[in-house]
Amino acid sequence: MVEWKKDIGLEGRMILTMFLLAAVYLAFLVFLASMGAPQIFILLFIALFMGAQYYYSDKLVLMTMNARVVSESEEPKFHETITRLCVIAGLPKPKLAIVDSSVPNAFATGRGPKNAVVAVTTGLMRKLDQRELEAVLAHELSHVKNRDMAILTIASFISTLAFYIVRYSFYFGGFGGNRKNSNNGLVVVWIVSILVWIISFLLIRALSRYREFAADRGSAAITGNPVNLISALRKISGTMENVPTEDLRKVEGMNAFFIIPAAVSGSVMNLISTHPSMDKRIAALEKIQREIEL
Amino acid sequence: MGFRDMLNSVLGRSKVPEAKTDRLFAMSTAVITLEMNLNLKPSAVAGICFKSMDMSKYQNTKEEIEQLLRFSSKETGTEYEIQKDEYNFLWAILKDKDFEDLVTNIHMISQTLIEQNFGEQILCAVYRFESNGPVYWIYNFKQGNYYPFVPTGKSKRDNSMELRLKSLMEKELPIEKEVGKWYPLWGMPF
């Protein structure tokens, strides 16, 4: 019997991050109010701006990424793969798009499961086999299912506000109130806004990393095969180079003449090891594999 | 969206809906109407499709299913075959003139998978009928509903026939209301 465990630690870190973010934001709003800022207008403006960005996210991202929505007759296998995953995940089928790029990558966007778009690059489709592609698509579907687009938009709402204050407050010449103090006040607002922006930026980054881990877990739960995502991640990052396909007997003979074994291509490995998140993601997936198998 | 779903989303919980088997049996009574009133003859073949996984526990479950199928083939004469399709999904294909035995075996396989916690990876069950060409009734375990699928070519389906079947069978079969979820299965293995 297989048991899918919850990752309490991950959920806890996620809650803590969201809580901290909310606390920072709340404190910032209280501070702005105490400085007599006409925050209603700023809030309305940002809300409108982010609302539009959120609402049109699918189209915006498709446009900026140069992604082309593909029909079922163009890409039958891609469609069928995602359909099956959606049936298993209990999700409506998203639109599918392809980006013409040799860099293997995939992304999901859209404001909710009903408006979602999942896109992959041609490089990804070339590089991965069916199982790995399925694992990556399941990861993207988990983002859709977890509404990561909405959550990160909400999370960055007030951070965006702080950013705009940092950038434009001098043009507007302060927030009214007492004329004598307004210049001093402005500097204080400016510094606090920078602080809020930096802290919230770090928190949002952390939250987004946790959402990645959660989507990896989601992929494992949908496909039932954490290993498939591991090998997809390895292939995408290039570490697969280190799992040789040459017959041992053949390589052994050659390696005797080399100081460094021929099968290891060092430079790629070094680049990756400076990139801890990939190692951590793989370690987390390996843990899931142990949880369900042992 | 309920509060629970919202919470699961916010916490990024990787919950996959469980398989529902309770309405699977609706087919065993509906088959009479299908045959008598709509002139759809059961083709004496059905199948269940589920994801294959590379783990030892899954191998054991697969062996358990095969054992049960072997046993039931002795008992009821149901022939069976297990094959993998190009998407790495497994199909257990059952052949039996007695429609009731097909339903029982499909239920037995899904139940075994659910008991071992592999129920979440069941894709669907399919019953084949004969009209001018094949007519399939597909059971979606996640929704607990049936829907018709009438392929007329490599990637064409007879929508008017499917919609007719829906309106005629609605009272007897739990049919998926959202037509957008009537996913086809091209290249059905039977």
Approximate shape of chain B? globular
Please write the string of helix (H) and strand (E) elements of chain B: HHEHEEHEEEH
Question: What low-confidence regions of chain B span 5 or more consecutive residues with pLDDT below 50?
Answer: none
Largest sheet of chain A: 4 strands, mixed
Beta percentage of chain B is 15-25%
Please state the overall shape of chain A, judged from the principal axes of the Cα atoms: globular
Looking at how many chains there are and whether they match, the oligomeric state comes to heterodimer
Query: How many E-type strands of chain B?
Result: 6
Strand neighbour order, sheet with most strands of chain A:
1-2-4-3
What summary fits the major beta sheet of chain B?
A: 6 strands, antiparallel
Q: State the separation between the terminal residues of chain A, measured CA to CA.
A: 10 Å
Poorly predicted runs of chain A are: 176-180, 251-276
Instruction: Bin the helical content of chain B.
Output: 25-40%
Radius of gyration of chain B: 17 Å
Specify the number of helices of chain A.
13
State which percent range the strand residues of chain A make up.
5-15%
Count of β-strands of chain A: 4
Rg estimate of chain A, integer Å: 24 Å
Q: In terms of structural class, how would the helical and strand content of chain A be classed? A: mainly alpha
The sequence of SSEs of chain A as H and E is: HHHEHEEEHHHHHHHHH
**Approximately how much helix is present in the residues of chain A?**
55-70%
Structure, briefly:
Helix content of chain A is 69%, strand content 6%. Chain A has 294 residues and is mainly α.
Describe the fold and architecture.
The complex is a heterodimer of chains A (294) and B (190). Chain A is mostly helical and 294 residues long. Chain A is 69% helix and 6% strand. Chain A has helices at 8-34, 39-55, 57-65, 76-89, 122-127, 130-145, 148-155, 157-172, 179-223, 226-237, 248-255, 266-273, 276-293; strands at 67-69, 95-99, 106-109, 117-121. A 4-stranded mixed sheet of chain A has the order 1-2-4-3, sandwiched between helices. In chain A, a hairpin with a 7-residue loop joins strand 3 and strand 4 (117-121). Chain A is globular and about 65 Å long. Chain B contains 5 helices and 6 strands. Chain B has a 6-stranded antiparallel sheet with strand order 2-3-1-4-5-6. In chain B, strand 2 and strand 3 form a beta hairpin. Chain A binds chain B through residues 1-4, 6, 10-11, 14-15, 18, 72-73, 76-77, 80-81, 83-84, 86-90, 92-93, 130-131, 134, 142, 145-148, 151, 210-211, 213-215, 217-218, 220-225, 227, 292-293, and chain B through 8-17, 51, 53-58, 86-89, 115-118, 120-124, 140, 142-143, 155, 180-181, 183, 186.
